[in-house]
């Protein structure tokens, strides 16, 4: 099927979504996502950051779709024409979605373990405004203990439903879900249940923000001070293909390997994730591919000064204060 | 007097019983359809009648039925949407409470047309007493052989069940209703697929409003062409209007589509004019989610033609100078009404009823309510009006289901037509009287 996204034509198999087609073209035209995860069925459609304008439904029926559609849940049609980054309305709408996602987010990035690999942080940086127009107290939730390994910090949650889908699709018995509704909706377990199963740690990997974090890694290090390496082991429960986050010889954290979109490639079991924290447990394969724009790769650059100049240019364009010239 | 087809019998004593309903010509459409017509003929009559969905969107019912996928060996379902929760709308309750058999008769006839062996009536949680009335009527219908196996000795068998919802506005959205009916959390599904292809338990399903299904009865009885003669243009037949607000005679009225708005508000047959001799300020024509219209635009369109009670005439001028017939929740406001306070009430409702699934609605509805609360408290600034406008534009059209629009439209329309009221409050020239809420709060605390 031929589909045109931002003026670039691509041939994709039937059943491909607009988002997947855009990702095949490349990151420049791919819409940002928060709730979509390529390895989880029926994920996506909730956060609305990936909305695009369909200016031609298909070759057979060329009428445009009246509203912006969620690209992650809309399948392409033959001859479909999609506008993403070239449509001002869409960029404006996306800014609106990001603003709404942020109004109740605590912005406690300086103390949040997710900082540096947080999708909302990236999204706020690329699409958000420098200041907020929200003047009311932000929503807060009581912390709930959901088990030995995973910390639930509901205040940071953006309701992507990915952790719910992980429990549905990787385990037999889901004990957590969404309670209440509207802006009082929260992820929780049913009457102080704890999540105890072999794959429960994957909720950490799929959480796009810092709502679900690794208790064994809590406050140990900022992620950009650790070095990611690909490693593997013979595991009976999972593929054993993991990413180790090392500081010197010490393994601080184990996660699943993630693709360029920040989505786990293969889910791993709790034993690999939480119990094997020695290099002797692993066969190291080599350094992990991390995009150079990611903050995680900043310590591995030699030309740091050039990077600083670049970052400052971007910040000026966004209207941020120059931290080097404090009043 | 306009013709009445749905609630013409509502004053007959004991019309809720099968005996009296039958004596007044009830279940004739079932007899006619099952004995003399093929299912497709019934659908054709509905198509000819031009009946449009009475739940709010006004989608042609015959076309909706035509979309129903009919694969071999797969069950089809008819689901009646009785989750009437739109503020200002109470017509379905009246119909089910007074003449429950009219709905059941419509369910049987419609199911016959669609080939559905099972149908469900999903009633909102707050209508539990109505559910009892409908259940009692269903039991009567089973006992008399109108439901069950081989109805009237034909091959057609049908079962009808009542399901009471938990009391959520969102479950009136058809896919959220289906989720709830399946026993899940009532969150709207992402479409496509539409229910006509994969609805209840993945099977092809038609979801219709109570009034739509009840209207199938007169359509089959009198024929679609005859029914289409009532009304104007594409707005055919009669419509139940729930009239409320500052009028002399609030209540449920059945109108022939095509009477003027002026006649509806001021004639003795319907609302009987504004109470206490006050002047008309604004109307909300079709339930709280449709745009509010100031008096001048309510009675005449922007072109200067009289505004009619039809889908087209009310929508004349788009949202700039028009509104929608919606579900027929007709709210009339007199000159003393504060549009800002009214808008706050609506916004609070949508904030409370947002399901929380998608971000613009979950976050935006609460934000809008909080800003409107500032207007009520007298702490708002002029910039808050622009902010409110901006937020609603960021919600509208960006959400999974129409609740986002339902929350955004009233805000947009109130600012569009009554911006001066917001500005006056922001400039501290006027204040909203909120003593009403103080009294309510005291009552709640006591």
Word description of this protein:
The complex is a heterodimer of chains A (327) and B (446). Among the domains of chain A are: 2-96, Roll (Ubiquitin-like (UB roll)); 104-215, Alpha-Beta Plaits (2-Layer Sandwich), CATH 3.30.70.20. Chain A is built from seven helices and 14 strands. Chain A has helices spanning 18-25, 88-103, 119-127, 162-170, 202-206, 270-275, 304-317; strands spanning 2-5, 8-11, 51-56, 69-70, 80-83, 144-145, 150-152, 176-179, 186-189, 212-214, 227-232, 241-247, 250-256, 283-287. With 446 residues, chain B is an alpha/beta fold. Chain B has a five-stranded mixed beta sheet with strand order 8-7-11-9-10. In chain B, strands 3-2-1-4 form a four-stranded parallel beta sheet, sandwiched between helices. Chain B is built from 19 helices and eleven strands. The longest helix of chain B has 24 residues, at 403-426. The radius of gyration of chain B is 22 Å and the shape is globular. Chain B folds into three domains: 18-229, Rossmann fold, CATH 3.40.50.11540; 255-334, Ubiquitin-like (UB roll), CATH 3.10.20.600; 339-445, NADH-ubiquinone oxidoreductase 51kDa subunit, iron-sulphur binding domain (de novo design (two linked rop proteins)), CATH 1.20.1440.230. Chain A binds chain B through residues 45-49, 51, 66-68, 70, 73, 93, 96-97, 99-101, 103-104, 133-134, 136, 158-159, 161, 177-178, 180-185, and chain B through 168, 170, 185, 190, 351-360, 362-367, 370, 387, 390, 393-395, 397-400.
In short, what is this structure?
With 327 residues, chain A is of the alpha+beta class. Chain A contains seven helices and 14 strands. Helices cover 20% and strands 19% of the residues of chain A.
Label this structure with key terms.
heterodimer; A: 327 residues; Ubiquitin-like (UB roll); Alpha-Beta Plaits; 14 strands; 20% helix; globular; B: 446 residues; alpha/beta; Rossmann fold; de novo design (two linked rop proteins); 5-stranded mixed sheet; 4-stranded parallel sheet
